[in-house]
């Protein structure tokens, strides 16, 4: 239609007036189609939903990471608590085994000093009761009945003794109530006589001792609990007096499991997330560390809630914006439609058509241009939101080409992770920054995901930084597909730095290995001391064994205080001599002189044993046995060989008659520790004025010995 033909248009309108009803019959099918407003709303949602999906994925991954971290912390704490409690039971079992292996106990001698010895040993172990219990037929019968029928014994002590005598192995009783009404736990070991156990050494203690261990070892803000094999609460780090002896509400949830994280309720009925671990020494016993479920959920729920609120607001804003835009776009179209209806109704519409049609082409294109600009602005706003979410995300994110694997985009967290700026990263294959040992597995998983063989690629791998440091990450790589063709156009990776978690796991493993080694080494030394100590007199044998075990304990304490990194030589010498200096005048007669020297762990234990033997001899026969005796302990470093020279000199003591006719146990210990264990030398001079002993060993040899034992 052109404006220079109004007469023809007018005539044509009169000639073709009859077809007008057919034109008016068309709106009905058109009304069934979706309007422009619906298309605009759908268009806005199509732009918004991928951004929301990406935000949801990121938020969910962060929430899952928080959940795993929380559960892992509970699991690690439960392991630490189990190790600490196993150590408590092992210490008591070790004491009971020491009593059971004493000759006077094995020979069933009626020695009046045994009872005093047991009382003193029990007091030294923290006020525990130690008794030697015969194995009556009733105990054996109760144990056999319990083992065959699974029935509870009326007397738990008799059942424990019978069980130990039947099995020949140490055992731990459940929590039980004594005759005086007090709650107790017992550890029993068999006493062998004529190659068969006929009695048991029973160590009984207050369960509050275990509660103190839980309080001392608890590493989180939660509450720790301990239950015996029948599910009875034995100890609790908080409110122990209220709940000891009551059934543990979480015990049935851990049935059949060695280690687990599960939900339950505590004694107060509060929902709790528990970290559980069974003990290795006490059969059936388990320890938990629990934190309120509300605290656990608070660590990951807020990001998801914020995401949901933001998504609802974004969708509402998109719908409102689409409605406004549709009204503005449809306004000129409505004017044209009304004009067409006026013409179709028979009116000429000449002037109105001239008023609308003249500017219509320009106005329509202008409206279209403005609409396109608004659409472009909306796209840019969506892209800006995506870029903001991408760049400011706390986790490392990157986009890669699905064919070549070259990086298309990285965020700040990704650059911080690999230690390189974006200018040195974009355009290069992502595999170039992965640790060489992990590249093949990373490429195989990524290739399968990028080509549709798998929906998502979950991975845990290492990145190698320019400075040589390694960062561990955990996350996933997902494909981004074209909505029409379904083809993968890029891959999106999201990773979280788990280097600290890996380091913590490694430290935990090393600590467990070190504790295992130290425990075995300590038991071996104790066994040697028990085997080599002369047994001519039971009381003397007991005192000698106790003294040597105490020396080992003091060395162990110094090493534990320094986290097994070594100990200061002056502290080692002072700790050993302090056990023999029972008053101030005697301590004033001891002189220590030497430079600061840090001994490696292997040397601490060996030197402690050697000093203990020298101090024992000085107390019995040397300078520390008389009032005016003096003891001088001097040391120095011999350079450049890196050797330690230590001299022990006794003066003003009883006259020394000369070299003994035979070598005693103390001399054998000196040679075994200094020469055989540390590769050093020992020289003893029996001067009439007092014993002199010179010990020299290489510190480097002690370090190598420690590494070899570890």
What does this structure look like?
With 710 residues, this protein is α+β, with helices and mostly antiparallel strands. It has 23 helices and 22 strands. Strands 1, 2, 3, 4 and 5 form a 5-stranded antiparallel sheet that branches. It has a 5-stranded antiparallel sheet with strand order 7-6-10-9-8. The chain has a 5-stranded antiparallel sheet with strand order 12-11-15-14-13, sandwiched between helices. The longest helix is centred in the first third of the chain and has 65 residues, at 36-100. Residues 1-31, 138-145, 147-153, 343-362 and 701-710 have low confidence and may be disordered.
What can be said about this structure in brief?
With 710 residues, this protein is of the alpha+beta class. Helix content is 52%, strand content 20%.
Catalogue the unreliable spans. Answer: 1-31, 138-145, 147-153, 343-362, 701-710
Q: How is the CATH topology of the largest domain named?
A: Beta-Lactamase
Could you tell me the mean pLDDT? Answer: 76
CATH class of the largest domain: Alpha Beta
Strand content: 15-25%
Record field, number of beta strands: 22
Summing up helix and strand content along with how strands pair, one would put the structural category as: alpha+beta
| DSSP summary: helix tally | 23
Query: Tell me, what's the shape?
Result: elongated
Computed Rg: 42 Å
Q: Which architecture of the largest domain does the CATH hierarchy give at level 2? A: 2-Layer Sandwich
How much helicity do the residues have? 40-55%
Number of domains: 3
| CATH homologous superfamily title of the largest domain | PAS domain
First-last Cα distance: 98 Å
Q: How would a crystallographer describe the biggest sheet?
A: 5 strands, antiparallel
């Amino acid at each position: 239609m052109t404006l220079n033909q109004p007469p023809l248009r007018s005539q044509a309108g009169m000639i073709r007036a009859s077809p007008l009803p057919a034109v008016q019959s068309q709106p009905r099918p058109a009304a069934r189609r979706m309007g422009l407003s619906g298309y605009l709303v759908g268009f806005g949602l199509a732009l918004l939903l991928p951004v929301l999906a990406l935000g949801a994925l990121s938020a969910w991954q962060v929430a899952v990471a928080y959940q795993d971290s929380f559960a892992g912390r509970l699991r690690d704490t439960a392991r630490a608590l189990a190790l600490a409690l196993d150590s408590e039971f092992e210490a008591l079992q070790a004491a009971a085994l020491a009593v059971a292996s004493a000759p006077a106990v094995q020979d069933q001698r009626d020695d009046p000093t045994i009872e005093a010895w047991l009382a003193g040993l029990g007091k030294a172990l923290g006020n525990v009761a130690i008794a030697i219990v015969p194995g009556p037929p009733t105990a054996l019968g109760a144990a056999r009945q319990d083992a065959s029928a699974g029935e509870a014994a009326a007397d738990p002590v008799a059942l424990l003794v019978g069980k130990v005598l039947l099995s020949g192995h140490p055992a731990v009783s459940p929590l039980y109530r004594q005759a005086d009404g007090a709650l107790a736990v017992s550890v029993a070991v068999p006493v062998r006589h004529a190659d068969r156990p006929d009695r048991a050494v029973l160590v009984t203690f207050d369960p509050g001792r275990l509660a103190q261990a839980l309080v001392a070892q608890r590493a989180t803000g939660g509450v720790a609990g301990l239950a015996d094999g029948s599910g009875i609460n034995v100890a609790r780090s908080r409110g122990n007096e209220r709940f000891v002896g009551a059934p543990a509400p979480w015990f049935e949830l851990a049935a059949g499991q060695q280690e687990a994280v599960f939900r339950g309720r505590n004694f107060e009925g509060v929902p709790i997330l528990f970290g559980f671990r069974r003990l290795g020494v006490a059969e059936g016993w388990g320890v938990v560390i629990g934190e309120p479920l509300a605290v656990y959920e608070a660590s990951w729920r807020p990001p998801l809630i914020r995401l949901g609120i933001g998504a609802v607001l974004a969708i509402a804003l998109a719908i409102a914006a689409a409605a406004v835009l549709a009204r503005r776009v449809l306004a000129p179209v409505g004017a044209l439609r009304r004009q067409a209806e006026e013409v179709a109704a028979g009116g000429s519409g000449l002037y109105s058509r001239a008023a609308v049609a003249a500017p219509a082409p320009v106005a329509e294109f202008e409206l279209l241009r403005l609409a396109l600009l608004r659409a472009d602005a909306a796209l840019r706003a969506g892209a800006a939101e995506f870029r903001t979410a991408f760049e400011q995300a706390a986790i490392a994110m990157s986009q890669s080409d699905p064919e070549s694997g070259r990086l298309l985009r990285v965020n700040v967290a990704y650059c911080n992770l690999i230690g390189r700026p974006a200018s040195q990263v974009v355009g290069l294959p992502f595999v170039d920054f992965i640790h060489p040992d992990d590249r093949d597995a990373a490429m195989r998983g990524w290739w399968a995901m990028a080509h549709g063989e798998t929906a998502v690629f979950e991975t845990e791998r290492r990145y190698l930084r320019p400075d040589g440091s390694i960062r561990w990450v955990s996350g996933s790589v997902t494909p981004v597909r074209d909505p029409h063709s379904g083809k993968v156009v890029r891959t999106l990776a999201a990773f979280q730095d788990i280097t600290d978690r890996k380091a913590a796991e490694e430290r935990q493993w090393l600590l467990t290995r070190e504790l295992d080694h130290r425990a075995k080494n300590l038991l071996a030394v104790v066994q040697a001391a028990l085997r080599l100590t002369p047994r001519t007199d039971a009381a003397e044998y007991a005192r000698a064994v106790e003294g040597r075990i105490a020396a080992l304990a003091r060395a162990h304490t110094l090493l534990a205080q320094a986290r097994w990194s070594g100990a200061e030589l002056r502290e080692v010498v002072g700790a050993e001599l302090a056990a023999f200096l029972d008053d101030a005048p005697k301590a004033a007669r001891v002189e220590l002189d030497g430079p600061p020297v840090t001994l490696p762990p292997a040397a601490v234990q060996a030197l402690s044993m050697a000093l203990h033997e020298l101090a024992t001899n000085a107390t019995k026969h040397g300078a520390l046995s008389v009032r005016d005796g003096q003891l001088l302990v001097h040391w120095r470093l011999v350079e450049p060989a890196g050797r330690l020279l230590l001299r022990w000199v006794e003066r003003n003591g009883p006259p020394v008659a000369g070299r003994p006719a035979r070598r005693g146990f103390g001399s054998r210990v000196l040679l075994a520790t200094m020469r055989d264990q540390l590769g050093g030398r020992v020289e003893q001079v029996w001067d009439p004025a007092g014993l002199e002993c010179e010990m020299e060993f290489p510190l480097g040899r002690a370090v190598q010995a420690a590494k070899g034992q570890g």
